[in-house]
Amino acid sequence: MTRITLVQGDITRQSVDAIVNAANSSLLGGGGVDGAVHRRGGPAVLAECRKLRASRFGKGLPTGQAVVTTAGDLDARWVIHTVGPVYSTSEDRSGLLASCYRESLKRADELGARTVAFPAVSTGIYGWPMDDGARIAVTTVREADTAVEEVRFVLFDERAHEAFARQLP
Ligand code: ADP
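Above: the input record for the complex with adenosine-5'-diphosphate. Below: its predicted structure, written as tokens.
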């Protein structure tokens, strides 16, 4: 059984096996979680991201997928980069958002990671409504078949923390 825990704070301050980054498809950094991960992870993370762009992901990492790099200077062994969908009112992209969590947990299982920290993927710059993002995150992790022992959702502010708390018993 995977334990789901909630923490309010900065995901780059967590001590876990793997930190999930809400990346963009370029893998070369951006704002929000992505900016913070690269700032605190340092040049080793960016160097591996560049290598991925030069090899397997020449066109970038597709939405809903997840890929692993070193965690550099972060207090973790790995960063799992996943690309959330941009929220749309005309198209249901929930499947892609669920895929981010599912694929990230698959990478975690391949690595043997036991503790994994997730941000609220897509709920920042990509505009996903927080309550719905929380529902998809918690439901998907609950239903996942994974050996990860703790999934820690790290929520930046009180509003996000409350939205996730409403999804838990
Ligand atoms: P996306 O582009 O997938 O929307 P963002 O990084 O813009 O990703 O935001 C995802 C969520 O993470 C938002 O709820 C945002 O408030 C939150 N966030 C931003 N920075 C951090 C951080 N350092 N630690 C944890 N959560 C963060």
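Notes for the reader.
The first helix runs from residue 32 to 41.
The beta strands are 3-8, 18-23, 66-70, 78-83, 115-118, 150-155.
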